[in-house]
Structure formats: C-alpha cells, structure tokens
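Lecture 7, part 2: worked example. A protein chain together with EPZ.
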Amino acid sequence: MDGSKNAALPEMAAALMATSPVHLRGLPELSDIDNMVRLLAELGCEVERDGRDLRLIPSADGSCHARYDIVRTMRASICVLGPLLARYGEARVAMPGGCAIGDRPVDLHLRGLEALGATIELDGGDIVAKADRLTGATVFLGGPFGSTVLGTANVMCAATHAEGVTVIESAACEPEIMDLADMLNRMGASITGAGTPRVTIRGRGTLEGCDHRVMPDRIVAGTLAIAAAITNGDVTLEDFPLDHLLAVVDRLQATGVSVQRMDELEPAQRCTVKITSERRLKPVLFTTQPYPGFPTDLQAQMMTLLCFADGNSIVTEKIFPDRFLHVSELTRMGAQVYRQGGTVVVQGVQDLVGAPVMASDLRGSASLVLAGMAAKGTTTVSRIYHLDRGYANLECQLNTLGAEIERFDPDAEAQAQAAPSQAEVC
Ligand code: EPZ
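Predicted complex, written out as structure tokens:
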C-alpha cells in the first residue's frame, strides 16, 4: 500500500521546522504531493526526490509566504501555517477557499494559534500570523463537526516551539495525527497522547531532521477493498492498515463482505487481508464520524457499493454535509439514491448501467470508477484530474485485478474535444 497522502502532506510541512535534512519514505506519486513540493520550494525548502522517498532540506532564511495561486489548488497547503509560525515567528498563508465537498473554514486553526500567543490578521485574502514568542497553553479544538485534522497538525507543530507545555483538548484522533506526532518526536519533539482527544506537547525550541516512513494510506486501502467487494472479486491486499479501518470493515462485513486476515503480524497496520463477497449484499446504515468512526473519505465509495444491496441503506454524512456530488452521477447510471440534507437513502438495484459521468472531487471520482467497474456496459469518467490528487494510477492497480480501465490520452482528448482528461471504465 502506498504511503498516506493525508499523513505525508502535514509531515512535509513539518519538515520546514527542521534545522537539518528530513527524509520521508514511501510517499505516493500524486499531484497533491507534487503541489506540496512546489510550495515548499517556494518557501525555500529544497526537495530532492528518489523514487518514493523525499529528502527535504529546509532553509534558515526561507520565505514565509504561501501564495494564493498554489494554496487555491490544494486546500491542504494550510498545514504550512503552524510550521512557518514556529520556524520564523511569522507566516502569510492565503486563506484556502471552499471546495466541491463544502465550506472549508479554518477558524479553529486560527483560534488555536492565537491561544499560543500569535496575532492573526486577514490582509488581502491572506492569513497573516505573527508571534515574537509562542507560549504553551491549553487549546480547545472542538468545532460543530468534531475536531479538525489539519488544525490539530498546525497547533501541534507550533506548540513544539512554544515555551512551556501545550495541551490540545478535543484534538483530532486520526491515525495521520499519530503518524505526524511520531515523526515530530523523532525530530526531538516531546508529544504524548497523539491519537487521543488530549495531546500534550512540551516545547523544545528547535527540531532536528529525521528519517520517517509514512504510514500506509487507509483511504486507498479501503477503496481497494470496496473495489474487490463491488465486483464480487477474490482479492488479497498487502500492507493493509486493518486497525485503522475497523469501522469500515465492520460495515463491509455487515453487508456480507468477508475481510479475512491472512497473517498474525502485530500491529495490524501493515497486514495481509483477503476480500471476498456474497453475490448479493445486505443493506446497512452508516454515519461518517471523526476517527475511529466511519471516515468521510470513504463515504462515496461505500455508497456506490450499497447500490448493489438487496434493500434500502441509509448514509448520513456528519463531517461535510454537502459531500454528495457523486449522487447525481450515480443516478445517471441507474442508481436509486434519494438525498434529504445530510442523509441519503440508497435503494439497491439489480444493476447499474454504464454512462458518461463527471468527477467533481477526489473521493467522488473514485466512487464513479468503482461504479463503472461493476456496471453493465462502458462508463466514461471525465475530469479525472480529481482522481490523480489522491490515487496513484488507480486504473493500473484495478486492471491487475481484472478490471478493464483505459485512460484516455489527455492530449488526444484535448484535441478531439477540448475537454479535460477522462478515463473509460468498463
Ligand atoms: C482532513 O481535512 C483531510 N485532508 C480530509 O481528506 C478529510 O476529509 C478531513 O480531514 C476529515 O477527516 C487532509 O488531511 C489533507 P477538518 P481537514 O479540518 O483537516 C470543520 C481527502 O479526500 N472545520 O478535519 O481540512 C470542517 O468544515 C480529504 O483526502 C471547522 O469548522 O478537515 C469539517 O466539517 C478531503 N473549522 C470538519 O471540521 C476549522 O477550523 C472536519 O474538517 C476546521 C475544520
């Protein structure tokens, strides 16, 4: 399994704080990673690539301005805010806009950094943060939709350079935060409680470089497991982060999908599992929650699987209530999906029928590829640049499992239709 995009991005940003080179290993080959490399280079951090490994050489006198034209292409750029503030005592980061899955506020990030003594102003669409000195404090990061993953990352990074002890209450518990804390501790930080709602950081002043292997990508792993199930396949997945996907495995098993562990290695973050499923699936209910609940990043993919269940399933999205752009596209393929606000009823059908559909966001695009694999006939998914942000050659992985997916040549496509790249899934 490739390294996790959502762990790698804040870890690349955290490298800005190091006073010597940082080696990150096992990164996925994704456009979001490329964008972060571009942003770090602009900030004065030299990045050398060696396959899936990066060597990051931060600068003592780099820039602290993350410009809008990079930030607008990738909201996750906001995760340089805390590291820049920690390293340089100031940061100018363009306010990330919303995106296809809904509003993406950063109020909790800013409130957290202010609690550490930063002054925050908005200037021409940029967040301007300044702190002559950061001081440890108790920071509450609970919001109306739970905690904030990248907000926790920002405050954790800044707190490593604060004088005294910082306690983050209502911290995000996602595995990506645990992986970041593990990396920061290798750099000389003193962080305890990562993965729980209360994280304690003892300020250290400076951080050294380190050598860190990024955790496996649990969302890609979950997507591949659903791909196996939706095609009634018989697939063995290696390096599978089983204990980071227990909520997803619980729901898969409730539908009649078998997830069988094939080894007894501990911890079960990189184990081997065998996925098979019954011919017809049972309907289930699930609600997306902060970790360890069902991850919002697998909601669209699971909804697609439930289109093939015998009965009505109910999907409730509690993290990004508008994260349903895939619903109308699945309907074009014959799915019976009815949305009421943040809840969707999925009435199972015998088959989906291939059709031209359009991707609008990263995980929604993956759900359309899965639908195309299981549908009768051919499906063409356009705007798959969304897919490439979070999946490295998904079609190659799926084709090795028996799928028939062909990526159109973007140039030929551009000449033919002056349209963005697309893939044909059947
Ligand atoms: C991370 O985004 C992930 N991205 C997202 O994955 C993931 O969906 C999300 O966490 C939730 O798990 C990366 O790690 C790069 P949040 P993040 O701040 O940190 C609200 C993918 O597909 N909120 O945890 O930006 C927010 O509106 C991406 O890989 C505030 O109200 O998400 C949302 O409803 C998509 N105020 C909820 O909290 C804030 O200051 C969770 O957002 C911040 C967030």
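The mean pLDDT is 94. The first strand starts at residue 22 and ends at 25. Keep this in mind for problem set question 3.
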